[in-house]
Amino acid sequence: MHNCLQKDQLLVKVNKLTSTKTQLPYSYYSLPFCKPNTIVDSAENLGEVLRGDRIENSPYVFEMREPKMCQIVCRAQVDDKQAKELKEKIEDEYRVNMILDNLPLVVPIARQDRDAVVYQGGYHVGVKGQYAGSKDEKVFIHNHLTFLVKYHKDETTELSRIVGFEVKPFSINHQFEGQWNDKNTRLITCDPHASKLVTNSDTPQEVEAGKEIIFTYDVGFEESDVKWASRWDTYLLMTDDQIHWFSIVNSLMIVLFLSGMVAMIMLRTLYRDISRYNQLETEEEAQEETGWKLVHGDVFRPPENSDLLCVCVGTGVQFFGMLLVTMIFAVLGFLSPSNRGGLMTAMLLTWVLMGLFAGYASSRFYKMFKGSEWKSITLRTAFLFPGIAFCIFFILNALIWGEKSSGAVPFTTMFALVLLWFGISVPLVFVGSYLGFKQPAIEAPVKTNKIPRQVPEQAWYMNPAFTVLIGGILPFGAVFIELFFILTSIWLHQFYYIFGFLFLVFIILIITCAEITIVLCYFQLCSEDYNWWWRSYLTSGSSAIYLFLYAGFYFFTKLQITKLVSGILYFGYMLLASFAFFVLTGTIGFCACFWFTRLIYSSVKID
User: Is 467 exposed, middle or buried (0-12, 13-18, 19+ CB in 10 A)?
Assistant: First the structure.
């Protein structure tokens, strides 16, 4: 927080160049912009580096509340390679991002339909256009910037605080008198003494090899009523709250419908079933038993690939813990967008620390399934998901590096990630596993028969593939509207800050996953099919398939990505996100079903 007196120096920093068309960030100085005498990197946190932020100093230096007009930054000669670079970046609609007192630079755009101003983050490097009477498309660079710094002044002291940083970019082919002298050249096209200021781009600066470009700027200051504490509000009021409420009401309808079904099963069916089973008197009635009680001797038989199921559940618990802790911090306001990279850093650190719970959960289930090699299950829990994620991340990073983008994670950061994984996460998984394995094994409420019972032929609608795919629709339906906003914030570079809504949606997702799995599990047991372990995991986990399909739909309808590398990046990261969503929702469904089966079988007297 900076309190500034009049004439205090204000240093503008530059950040990466970004484009929603390519998703590949580049360093500001990769283009022939004016450079300061020495370029100094600002220290970035782990989250910022992973996002591709590269914050450096710039030749733009203002003085507080001292307006300046037609300031020359530098004159640049553009060679063939630089002209080609500039044209490519302008074609791909790259934007320049700057920062003043931790506030990102925005371009105000008047919206005709709403009589309101919306803010676009960063200004475009340039534009494509035609000269009047010509059909040839030319490329023009924005070489004159009109900055507006808004400040809030303290009435009692003379101190001011910066509350807004806006720019209007123009393209102008500057002309000057006489010989070029860096400091004292007078421009004909922009001269405050002759009251000639840049207000339009009628004589634009074309990008051509061998041509020189003169970079200039104006800076104005405007007093504002906005207080320092609420200076981010203009950046964040870009989306409509009504849609989020609609999303939550839509999700609550699904939850109420499912809760009604679960309540009916619990009250009507189970109550009736349990009371009837407990009052069986004659042997004839005992032989006529039908439904879920018939499979009591097989329902807790360990499933095939039980080790993998334990690993998946452990990883899901780790994800659940990470999301829960991160969201609580975000809702309490610790991870505001002004803290760049904070969300990413928090998620990584909580993921690493939650390894303790992952190890504990996987070893508890492993012991219940009569497993004895707890170290092997621990290693698999510690390496399965992070290993897959790291391989995908490494391949994608190599692609970004091949494009010479600043989004490529440097070797030192990669080493720090490996260190977090091997130095903290893996040992914590071992500690959790050790503690879990020392606990007594979870006892099944009923004895398991030695010989497995034959599963009768099932109706078509009880086919595993069918029920699994049906089960994923409702959890996905509960979150898909909020998903649209999350994808927009990631891929269209907008701020996402409505963590209160997100937390509500997360709770709704948990309830939906649990309830749909319980309902389908009950129907499965009633048709005398006791193979519920994996089915319960896959039922809610299949919502990840719909998530990935939706990501594909979003790619083709909302994004204008044309580059192959950018497309691979998008689908690579969305595949990773879908895999994480599968593990999370599957674990929620599995745990709900595990609780449900233990509950119903412990309520029945088994002879």
Answer: buried
Which tens digits make up the pLDDT trace of 395-420? 999 999 999 898 898 888 999 999 99
Task: Check residue 270 and give left, alpha or beta (phi > 0: left; psi -120 to 50: alpha).
Answer: alpha
* CA-CA-CA-CA dihedral for 15, 18, 23, 24, to nearest 10: -60
Cα–Cα nearest to 326, from 354, 347, 341: 347
Of 15, 14, 13, 27, the closest CA to residue 407 belongs to 27
What is the C-alpha separation between 471 and 539, in angstroms, rounded? 5
Residue 270 has pLDDT above 80, yes or no: no
Reference 139, options 129, 153, 148; nearest CA is: 129
**3-state secondary structure string, 341-362?**
CHHHHHHHHHHHHCHHHHHHHH
DSSP 589: H
Which contacts of 575-580 are long-range, i.e. CB under 8 A and separated by 24 or more positions?
575/392, 575/548, 576/389, 576/392, 576/393, 577/547, 577/551, 578/544, 578/545, 578/547, 578/548, 578/551, 579/385, 579/388, 579/389, 579/544, 580/319, 580/385, 580/389
Nearest partner of 506 among 375, 274, 315, 326, judged by Cα: 326
CA 119 to chain centroid, in Å, comes to 21
Residues in CB range of 594: below 8 A, 6 or more apart:
536
> What pTM was computed for the model?
0.89
CA 262 distance to own-chain centroid: 33
Tell me if residue 5 falls in helix, strand or coil: coil
Query: What pLDDT, in 10s, does the model give residues 111-167?
Result: 766 667 778 889 999 999 887 777 888 899 999 999 999 999 887 887 889 999 999
Closest-CA residue to 425 (of 470, 476, 378): 378
Token match 């991340």: residue?
Answer: 393
Token pair of 412 as six digits: 């030192």
Q: Identify the pLDDT of residue 500.
A: 84
Half-sphere exposure in the Cβ direction for 55 (13 Å, CA) = 19
| DSSP string computed for 248-302 | HHHHHHHHHHHHHHHHHIIIIIIHHHHHHHHT--SHHHHHT--GGGGGTTTTTSP
Chain segment 200-232, per-residue pLDDT in tens: 878 888 898 888 899 999 999 999 888 888 888
